[in-house]
Amino acid sequence: MHKPIAALAVLLTASVPMGSLVAQGAQPQLVSVELSSFKFAPAEIPLRRGQAYRLHLVNTSGGGHDFAAAEFFAASNIAAADRGLIVDGKVKLAGKQSVDVVLTPEKAGTYALRCTHFLHSGMGMNGRITVQ
Description:
The chain is an alpha+beta fold. 20% of the residues lie in helices and 40% in strands.
């Protein structure tokens, strides 16, 4: 009688993408990124495919910034509760605001990161997310 239940559990597990299991079952690793005038710290963010992360974005300046990485977000499994924080491939932060986004990168690659506010990227507010 227990064999059908076990078989069903195996079947259901096999139909769920691996990244979804990691995002749901693993404790996300904390990655803090500071947004200031006019840089990201760190500007180089190394991540591993399939590992769950909690991006802790902190705007230390008084003015607004954003964490724009549309291709990275599109290639990641975003926690359902955090999907609304990402609009048009970016997370907006008001002055002195912090935002957490839980996600699991699903595709290896190098992704551009920038602030889309007027002249911010031109003044050095750029970075790179590398997923291995």
